[in-house]
Amino acid sequence: LEGGPATAGSDVGFVRIAPGGVFPDHEHLGDERVLVLQGRVLDSSGEESGPGDATHLGPGSAHGLRCVSKEPLVYAVVVGGIRMADGSVIDVET
Length: 94
Known about the structure:
The chain is mainly beta. The protein contains no helices and 10 strands.
């Protein structure tokens, strides 16, 4: 998605994770804001979120995610780049 001025310098989009699927451990290079639209997600911190729940993680925070519902997890995200556990970087420039 193309975000407006308030999301300049961030990646904006939707993420879909199949039931039982994971988004591996990663570190945030900028802020991450998430709104869960469907399904349930278990964060590696132990926090579980569902539809309508919003979260914010700041730069330097790290975590992983797992879809714990029988339906796919779908969430909207605004994120300022991430560094994966293997050191690779995913940011708005790639």
